[in-house]
Design brief:
The chain is α/β, with parallel strands linked by helices and 534 residues long. It has 16 helices and 18 strands. The longest helix has 20 residues.
């Protein structure tokens, strides 16, 4: 009878939670406690924004950010903290700038020097001369001498059709759960590569025609400016100063020029080039794993920014989240099976150059090793079309990469990036954070940030789903990208979720599933793709 009772008890009593599961629960509890009650994420991001400010690649501020982040990693007890350099180009920074309309009346305009264009001290009339392609040059020959050339079409305004601030609903997230057919259109890539040379050709044309400066219209209304520019290599050496003018101010100038006489602008900009070190630097730090044969998992965000604001949502927020996840894990004393590596990339805004350099140094090469190195947009559009892919010895060591690059909004889950096999794994890893709103896994792919080139060589690399807030509508790369627009609760939540996912990936029994090594694709239906305008 006693044996029967014991057997019945074994059948009716729930099995105890495994020791491994209990340990995971305890680790998650410690991560949540450290990330909520002892968080440093906002003090870290304030140092990167209020104190250091915008971090153009190779600028003096970026050098300060490199030193600050490396010092914090070391202070928190991470190992193997170091810089990894790669050839980039010139540093550039703004000391002061002013753009004024002086006739027919005096107005201080909202404007910013375009990155990597030279200093200016000019006063001249404007001419509206829209130039989008090299074929537009002939139309304006002989008309630009002594003028400030307004090269953008004025447009008519872009009144928003929806609220600028957004949280993702369940329905919004469900729309992301679609499989994206990979697109292979070499001709479109070739057209984009041909356009890469346009800014340099434009500079040469304006110089030859005697223009004293040029101006572009900001791409959005609201008196926002951006100042993006891409002639950062020493060999580019732009000669004509450029400014981006707020859309409202730009359209006023165009209206006045149309009725005549053309208004006169005064541009005074003091910008500085720094050629002391052409190398840009990624910052790398590790929490060592206990099994040297198990490989490593990695989290990354880009440290560089544009210069119009303080580079807060783009991308001090992502860097601070990665740093805080590192601090949380170090503070909780975890000893993961796999090494957890943290990377802060440089040169992302100029073509994902920091993460590309990491691939070249550690993971794989593409195409002929003797082929010229690509930089900037030539690398962004050209490198993915170099074949074959040749893995390096470190290729198999990278088990998973997780990227943060969508502002400061709450993490809502993960994009599976077309890898269906990881969906149930990610759902399991995210389950402890369901109450925090971070449990979704969707099939679709994301583009335009530092996981992309890792994906393109067949490695498991992923981006988080984030609440957009007002990132794309107002903040991204703009003059109001400051600390004020970051959400502290979201930043704390994001660092906790990232730390938890990294620890699960580091301790997983098996590496994440990955596809085969990519080979050159075949264009099966070239007429299905719309042609870009040359």
């Amino acid at each position: 009878m006693r044996r029967l009772l014991l057997a019945a008890a074994m059948l009716t009593t729930p099995a105890p939670t495994s020791l491994a599961a209990q340990d995971r629960d305890a680790q998650t509890a410690r991560i949540v406690d450290e990330g909520t009650n002892h968080s440093q994420v906002m003090s870290t991001v304030q140092q990167l924004t209020d104190v250091i400010g915008p971090r153009m690649t190779n600028s003096p501020a970026m050098r300060r950010a490199e030193a600050f982040t490396a010092a914090k990693f070391a202070e928190w007890g991470l190992r193997n903290v170091h810089k990894e350099g790669f050839p980039f180009g010139r540093g550039w920074s703004i000391e002061r700038s002013s753009v004024r309309m002086v006739t027919p009346r005096a107005i201080q305009l909202t404007a910013i020097p375009i990155a990597w264009t030279p200093a200016a001290q000019v006063s001249a009339p404007v001419i509206v001369a829209p130039i989008r392609r090299e074929r537009d040059f002939d139309k304006w020959r002989g008309q630009l001498k002594g003028k400030i050339v307004m090269i953008s079409l004025p447009g008519t305004g872009d009144e928003p059709g929806e609220a600028p601030f957004q949280r993702l609903s369940d329905a919004d997230i469900a729309k992301l759960d679609t499989f994206d057919q990979p697109r292979n259109d070499p001709e479109a890539q070739a057209r984009r590569l041909r356009r890469v040379g346009f800014p340099k050709a434009l500079d040469a044309f304006l110089k030859a025609e005697g223009a004293v400066a040029y101006a572009t219209r900001s791409r959005g209304d609201g008196k926002l400016v951006h100042g993006e520019g891409y002639l950062f290599e020493k060999r580019d050496d732009p000669q004509v100063p450029g400014v981006e003018i707020a859309a409202e101010d730009y359209r006023r100038l165009a209206r006045l020029a149309r009725i005549g006489p053309a208004p006169t602008l005064e541009i005074a900009s003091d910008v500085r080039f720094d050629d002391s070190d052409i190398n840009a630097y990624n910052i790398v730090a590790d929490i060592p794993g206990t099994d040297p044969k198990a490989g490593y998992v990695m989290a990354g965000a880009h440290l560089d920014s544009w210069v119009a604001g303080d580079g807060a949502a783009a991308k001090a927020a992502g860097s601070a989240l990665v740093m805080e996840a590192a601090r949380i894990l170090a503070a909780t004393g975890v000893r993961p099976k796999r090494t957890i590596r943290f990377a802060l990339w440089a040169g992302e805004e100029q073509g994902l150059l920091g993460s590309l350099a990491y691939i070249d140094q550690h993971l794989a090469t593409r195409g002929d090793p003797a082929a010229p190195k690509l930089n900037g947009d030539r690398a962004y559009y050209g490198w993915p079309n170099r074949w074959p892919i040749a893995p390096k010895p470190g290729y198999s060591q990278l088990v998973a990469y997780f990227n943060i690059d969508n502002g400061s909004g709450k993490l809502r889950g993960l994009y599976a990036e077309g890898n269906a096999a990881v969906v149930p794994i990610f759902r399991d890893w995210l389950a402890p954070f369901d109450a925090m709103g971070a449990s979704s896994v969707v099939a679709s792919r994301t583009t335009g940030t530092d996981h992309v080139f890792l994906q393109s060589i067949g490695l498991p690399a992923f981006q988080f789903i984030q609440d957009p807030l007002d990132y794309d509508s107002r903040i991204h790369h703009t003059s109001i990208d400051t600390y004020d627009h970051l959400r502290a609760d979201d930043m704390r939540q994001g660092s906790i979720v990232l730390a938890g996912v990294l620890l699960r990936a580091a301790n997983a029994d098996k590496p994440l599933p990955r596809g085969p090594l990519p080979t050159r694709p075949v264009v099966t239906d070239p007429l299905a793709y719309s042609a870009d305008e040359d």
